[in-house]
Structure formats: structure tokens, C-alpha cells
Amino acid sequence: MKNFDDILTGCLKGKGMRYIRFKVDPTLNKGFEESESYEGFVLHELTNEACGGGLPSVLKMLMPGGSMPGIYDINQPVITPNKPKAIKMFKSFIVKKLSEKLDNKVMEQIKNTDDIDDIELYLKQGGFSDKDILNVYKKVLKNA
């Protein structure tokens, strides 16, 4: 069963909010030394250009999970990629190679999610075992 943070994250991703991974300078962002996760949703973004060059760049972030859930102002963040190509590549492989083995409902569910746990769940609902899913991962990596 999913916890509240997982449900909230899924809903916000479904609404198209930008979900990013970021790095922070701990001298500018106190308290992040304890954080296990540096991922969240962008609620508001201020840049030097938007503020006439007078203010540093700031992101207002919603971090729904991890050890520090909450809303934070992040000073001078460095945004890093958050695995978008890996999920897209995995889904593309499933659509091309497994469409005959899965029914249309399962294929639509897989196409409409970007959550790897959901994709695995849908594959299991389509009759795949853990070993079958592991073999799919191996095939994707061989063809990457």
C-alpha cells in the first residue's frame, strides 16, 4: 500500500508540476546536511534576471518525502537530471517488445506513468513474475 507521500507525489506529477533533483551549497542552505534526498517539486522560481539582478536565484520547493518533508526556499540550487531518459527508454522497450504479451489496459497504464514501481506493478498484473521483470531490465540494458 502506498503511503501519503507517494500518493501526493504521484498526483503532483500527474498535474504536470516540474519534479527535479538538485544540489545545494550547505553554507547557503542550513539544515540540508541531514537530508537523504535532494528532490522535489518546484513551487516558485526567482532568478537574478526576474528580480532585476538584485537577488540571488531561489527555488521554493515542496519535498514530499525523505527525511525532511516540507516546503523550503533553496538558495542558488544546481539542478541535475532526474533519470527522465531511463524511464522513457524502459517504457519504449516495453511498448515495442512486449505489446503482444500484455493487454491494452496494462499497456495504457504503463504509457501513462513515469513511476518505475507502478510500471513493475502493471507488469505483474499482466502476468510477469519478478524473474520475468528482471529479464526485461537486462534486455533494456543490453540494448541501451
Gist of the model:
The protein is an alpha+beta fold and 144 residues long. It is 40% helix and 19% strand.
Note the topology.
Elements lengths: L3 H11 L4 E5 L15 E8 L11 E6 L6 E6 L2 E3 L3 H15 L5 H8 L4 H10 L4 H13 L2
Provide structural commentary:
The chain has 144 residues and is an alpha+beta fold. It folds into two domains: 4-80, no CATH class; 84-142. 40% of the residues lie in helices and 19% in strands. The protein contains five helices and five strands; from the N terminus they run H-E-E-E-E-E-H-H-H-H. The protein has a five-stranded antiparallel β-sheet with strand order 4-3-2-1-5, with no helix packed on it. A hairpin with a 6-residue loop joins strand 3 and strand 4 (70-75). Helix 3 runs antiparallel to helix 4.
Describe the sheet with the most strands.
5 strands, antiparallel
State the separation between the terminal residues, measured CA to CA: 32 Å
Regions with little confidence, pLDDT below 50 for 5+ residues: none
The number of domains is 2
Q: What's the overall average pLDDT, rounded? A: 76
Helix content: 25-40%
Radius of gyration: 19 Å
Q: What is the N-to-C succession of helices and strands?
A: HEEEEEHHHH
Number of helices: 5
Shape: elongated
Helix-and-strand structural type: alpha+beta
Order of strands across the main sheet: 4-3-2-1-5
What percentage of amino acids are in beta strands?
Answer: 15-25%
Write out key terms for the chains shown.
5 helices; 5 strands; alpha+beta; elongated; five-stranded antiparallel sheet; 2 domains; about 140 residues
